[in-house]
Design brief:
The chain is mostly helical and 114 residues long. It has one domain. It has four helices and no strands. α1 packs parallel to α4 and α2 (38-51) packs antiparallel against α4.
């Protein structure tokens, strides 16, 4: 497949989507990272276990449609987007759940070691 036959706007659109995705990922990590707790870690682990099956699905896609996809042009994009999703997953779960980020925000009395 010849890249010169692709529309001119295709590359611009891809870069714009990648930029928006990266900004959203930074925002989610910034908002949710301090809220990550055991529940978010457990949910992330379950999601990791499910999402790793995507690797097998991509192998099937490669076997069925490998001659129709320009892997050299899309593999790096797939790779870093998948890494970004998995890296941010605990913060995503914590941010989506919302809630307090500390016992003081939740209204609990701070532990004074008594």
């Amino acid at each position: 497949m010849d890249r010169d036959t692709w529309p001119k706007w295709w590359g611009t659109l891809d870069v714009a989507i990648a930029f928006v995705l990266a900004v959203l990922a930074f925002a989610v990590v910034g908002f949710g990272q301090r809220r990550v707790d055991k529940q978010a870690e457990d949910a992330s682990y379950r999601a990791y276990r499910f999402l790793t099956h995507g690797i097998l699905c991509l192998l099937v896609v490669f076997m069925l449609f490998g001659d129709r996809i320009v892997w050299g042009n899309c593999l790096t994009g797939f790779g870093w987007r998948a890494w970004l999703l998995l890296y941010c997953l605990p913060a995503w779960f914590a941010a989506a759940r919302g809630g307090a980020s500390s016992p003081a925000e939740a209204g609990a009395a701070p532990d004074r070691g008594m």
